[in-house]
Design goal:
This protein is an alpha/beta fold and 353 residues long. Helix content is 28%, strand content 23%. The strands form 5 sheets. A 5-stranded mixed β-sheet has the order 1-4-2-5-15. Strands 7, 8, 10, 12 and 13 form a 5-stranded antiparallel β-sheet that branches. A two-stranded antiparallel sheet has the order 3-16. Helix 1 packs across helix 8 and helix 6 crosses helix 8. This is N-acyl-aliphatic-L-amino acid amidohydrolase.
Length: 353
Amino acid sequence: MPVVLMTLAGQDPSLPSLLLNSHTDVVPVFPEHWKYEPFSGDKDDNGDIYGRGTQDMKCVGIQYLEALKTLKKDGHEFLRTIYISFMPDEETGGLDGMKNFVKSDVFKKMNVGFALDEGHANPTDNFYVFYGERTVLPIKVKCPGQPGHGSQFLTNTAGEKLYKVIDSFLSYRDEQEHLLKENKNLCLGDVNTVNLTMLEGGVQYNVVPAELNVGFDIRVSPTQDLTKFEEKITSLCKSAGEDVTYEFVVNKLPQASEGQNQVTCVEDGKNPWWDAFSQACKHQGVNLEKQILCGGTDIRYLRQVNIPALGFSPINRTPILLHDNNEFLNEKIFLRGIEIYKTIISALANMKN
């Protein structure tokens, strides 16, 4: 899949530009669990538009385009150059999308000063804005052991080690969940999550296998030192056996030189981009809730090259249905989002300092 890049030249191209990013790919669907055909865009009598990507994130990309089309039609001009990017492969880690794109000469010549990307819906009257996100670290833990006939009490088996690994990782999961429940000031993005998602191994029921593997989806908060977190993983694996090993899947552990766990400043008066964004939202009557995103988006690759960025989808009064069955977005919420983006884009693209 290609990267699609659109350019709206500003009056002063020497100024750092504004990047409006979205992604074109979506996750798979299970049609039997949908009210309507998942890619039909059916709209019901309530004005709810059903379809995969209505929240994540076809809506945002279209809202960018509609906002800019209307602004240009009304004669608006912009001080800074605006880029609109449509990325592939975000849902599979962005390796062939944003991760490589930020290393390209094309991107470097864009001189991006600030970027917007996706957030997600808020069921209340408020709107979420995400100034950071957790590091996505899926891992595979390999448990080798003594193979043999299933009728014996063999020692040092892969199954015993697998049991210990699962027990220790899920105990850590319980600790993190307890922290979240006990501290009402924390949101999901402030803690680490661990979920068992894959099991591999075995040849047949009466054969004790020589190796069993388990996969975990791990999300690490920006407040967590990644070096210490890897020490924790090493310790959990070692407790199950000296020969138990692990490997990172998709993403390796980010190093400090790669901007690990970068966050964007959202303190008033300390970041002009934030000031312009937040003032535009106030002008539109948008009440913001600042959070760390619990998932992962292309924003992380922008922050890793020291570009401040915010995750924001202008969706409120809507259940969070990204990746869920019957994903929908109401037409009134969608159209309101275009008006919100018109104000935000104008404020950011005409920022003078």
